[in-house]
Here is the input.
Amino acid sequence: MIGSSAFNYINILDKAADASWARNELITNNIANVSTPNYKRKDIEFQSYLANELKGKGNLDQKVADADLSSLEASVYTDHSSLSYRLDGNNVDIDTESASLAENQIRYYALLDAMTQEFSRIKSVLTNN
Here is the structure.
């Protein structure tokens, strides 16, 4: 993480990419345990935390610059819903997990691309005096 609020946009993208990577690992684990009796799927919560951090009045640039990154952490939760897809108590649906994995991978690569573009803009400003 870069230690200046001027780079909060990159720092937020970095935290979002970390959360997306962690979610990818959880979804992969869910898929691996699709046949495990009584296994309950796990997921990660980050998007709502980011939305709460950036809500309020003012423009997005100011909200990002003022964001408290120390409170912006992803949390893992276990889905203990009473809904079970099988008689053995497992609540993992392979089709849903596969779709979530594909969506999450697209999100992850989009975040990496956004960080790359931001670093390119910074490099361009620094090299074009």
